[in-house]
Amino acid sequence: MLASAPETLMPPADTENIQLRHGDLARNKLTFPIVIVAADIESGVNVGSIFRIADAMGVAKLYLTGRSPVPPSPKIRKTSRATEKAVAHEYCEQATEVIAKLKAEGYVIVSLEVTTRSTDIRRFDARAFEKLALIVGSENHGVSQPLLAASDHTLHIPMFGQNSSLNLATACAIAVFEIARRFMPDG
Known about the structure:
disordered N terminus, 5 helices, single chain, Alpha/beta knot, alpha/beta, globular
């Protein structure tokens, strides 16, 4: 597992490169102005992974909608590693209602989907916005057309192999990191 350690934990250059354990890491809990809207995610394993991503990347809140399973759930708990207890979350059946609420609160709505108008995520400057809501869609059907229509921006992750997509949780992790790093302090 790759993790970045704060400079205060970095060993001097003349010492051995030793893996740090979970308890060795100093934690600076930061929350960024980012929320995730998980629209019709059917797998509890993927929802658990999204909770873990949200916790690791300082996401302010996770909205679960439609067919997305909600805690408590053994499948969510298995992959979340208890982060469902640490990440603020809410369930709403209709994702469009969540999007309308977030827009009213000043969020810019961003969907993660390959479309005729999507932008390479590497070219998206999240710093231009105060608050962002990232929509991730169903494992099989992606982000629905009504949610794409409600989005201010649509982003895609460039692919260089034969496949045209990534596992939902993997794509979510890449997207959240790319967005959140714009808000992260240096160092």
